Amino acid sequence: MGRKFFVGGNWKCNGTTEDVKKIVSTLNAGELPSTDVVEVVVSPPFVFLTTVKSELRPEIQVAAQNCWVKKGGAFTGEVSAEMLANLGVPWVILGHSERRALLQETNEFVGDKVAYALSQGLKVIACVGETLEQREAGTTMEVVAAQTKAIADKISCWDDVVLAYEPVWAIGTGKVASPGQAQEVHAGLRKWFEENISAEVAATTRIIYGGSVSGSNCKELAGQQDVDGFLVGGASLKPEFIDIIKAAEVK
Ligand code: PGA
User: Fold this and answer.
1) Does the model's pTM come out above 0.90?
2) Tens-digit pLDDT profile for the chain (251 aa)?
């Protein structure tokens, strides 16, 4: 099927210069599967992006955690997609639930951001996921389909998009989705692609899982048919991130 396993490390708003040095040296010393087996991308805060990019081993790529919705200009505090492209930052995370919830980013706004970032040559890790209330109300698929549709409405090619399914109730809570719960939503999203975009996009787009992924639960999750990798928060700041990357060997 040719979906290369993908492991993203989302450092969020964490770290000092010293912490970043430590994480980079752990990653540089780690024994990793070959790049034929796994694609690894870490996402430091903006201020550390260029240092991390220049000090990290070349097999590991970097991602920004956000970018502005359109061309740069008079938008104080924002970072544009063209700036990231200019710095050689290949990836950006968009639509993370923390931004959707805390900064009121709507589905449409996220769709616009994804489209603009792609137009500037960036690759996108686009996040979707339901809250606990939505899961309990039985609307999980409806919610993630609407989030995915808002992106699909704005783009015509999924080649440079990785879709991250991140149930909000599992993020930073230590409450991981069971392998069965993750597989069910991933399979549902793949079916959504098949019915609404194309069989090819369904077969080739990587759908990764995020939410309390750790060294101890990663192998079982990676064993699920439609789980093509992970977006890792807390554990990506720790040496166990290497073990999570190695879960690619399960495939
Ligand atoms: P977590 O975060 O691994 O700390 O739950 C995942 C994410 O928000 O991407």
Assistant:
1) yes
2) 589 999 999 999 999 999 999 999 999 999 999 999 999 999 999 999 999 999 999 999 999 999 999 999 999 999 999 999 999 999 999 999 999 999 999 999 999 999 999 999 999 999 999 999 999 999 999 999 999 999 999 999 999 999 999 999 999 999 999 999 999 999 999 999 999 999 999 999 999 999 999 999 999 999 999 999 999 999 999 999 999 999 999 98
Q: Is the CB of 211 under 6 A from ligand 1?
A: yes
Residue closest by Cα to atom 2 of ligand 1: 233
186 is catalytic: no
Is 96 known to be catalytic?
A: yes
Residue 105's contacts (CB-CB under 8 Å, 6 or more residues apart) are: 95, 99, 113
Handedness of CA 60, 65, 68, 74 (dihedral sign): negative
Q: Where is 157: in which H helix or E strand?
A: none
DSSP structural state of residue 216:
T
